[in-house]
Amino acid sequence: MDQIKIRGGEKLNGTIEISGSKNAALPIIVASLLTHKKVIIRRVPDLADVRTILELLTFFGAKLNIQSGIGGKVIEIRNERIINNKAPYELVRKMRASVLVLGALLARCGEAMVSLPGGCAIGTRPIDIHLKALEKLGAKISLEDGYVKAEAPKGLTGSVINMPKVSVGATENLMMAAVHAKGETVLHNAAKEPEIFELGCFLNSMGSRVSGMGTDKIIINGIKELSETDFTVVNDRIEAGTYAIAAAITGGKIRLEGVNIEHLGSLFNILSKTGVSIIKDNSSVLISRDRSILPVDIITEPYPGFPTDMQAQMMAFLSLGEGTSKITENIFENRFMHIPELTRMGADITQVGSTATVNGVRKLKGAPVMATDLRASVSLVLAGLAAHGETVISRIYHLDRGYENLVFKLTNCGADIKRVAGV
Ligand code: EPZ
Fold it and tell me: By alpha-carbon position, which residue is closest to atom 44 of ligand 1?
């Protein structure tokens, strides 16, 4: 398996173009199942997770035409006929977001079988909210040999659904399932992430009638036919936040191009409190740090709160803080797998339950470390960029799931980082 080698200590300076959002592109690609007409999606990042979801759609019968375009891939998808509506374990286990096909397949062909996704490194990640809500729309749900079987031979019927917990995936699944349902569906306690807003815009670009996306109450009025569409994916707020921390942790200065600044309010608010300079300029932002890192307390929450997907990156940054910071992870039950790895690099972090106490140290030391999940792996890259000496990160296939051209982007800003072929 490939590794990444970093010789830390360089202050990063330069410009980074932010790619299209992984977590917006995935549900949008899935939503193409809702129509037999041509769908064009632009600025799609070239990531392992995107390749997995496209592999799954091809398995269902999709015809794809993929070109390189401005800022990412241009993907033309035609789901003229669904020849298979069973998502196999070997694909679903690679990426939990595959469970999003449940709602779309149910809406399109009245039946779907999706392997239970299983947990992952950051938690059990059940799908009970997805399933109970689909039943509210009239789906018959059963479990067979590790597969979820959803049936609605007469179609789905709109309903009022109170989501017991904010769930990004369940909100997306239900939005797609409700597109062809008879009548109106109301989702209360819906997730408000920008990726939900984008999915709603995508569905409406095909003629759907979705309103309230980005608020906690989303209304979907079902329609029979959708039209073709040509849609551009929003930029990745988590990638942008990650590279903002790359600038901050090395004490450099990086201009991030193509940033939706309003999507990063809570992160930028926290970074400002640590002493990081953030200069906003339309769709770009200049991040720099020329003073010590002040400690700060963080609690991860659903959007617009502090994003759980930035928790590991902030922990690496605060490991070099001047004082003690507390980080509470409220979204996933096991999203602290990066703590032992950062500790190997000299960080002083203790965990009690869902709260990690980070006692800042003067320096981190390069070491061999192991990636365990997508955001933990990038927190090790960030720590390696600031550490004295060499850091070797193994199992970097986790990184390939969510960061397009990471080595290239960081090298361009002066990082001494390279990818070495598997040992
Ligand atoms: C999405 O995952 C993102 N993935 C995650 O990003 C992100 O961390 C998460 O939302 C929270 O923002 C994609 O968009 C592809 P949830 P999702 O349903 O939809 C519990 C990354 O790094 N829950 O909002 O799976 C669940 O266990 C990834 O890019 C249930 O209990 O997250 C978790 O504790 C990681 N039952 C909480 O809700 C359910 O039926 C939030 O999960 C569904 C979820």
Answer: 167
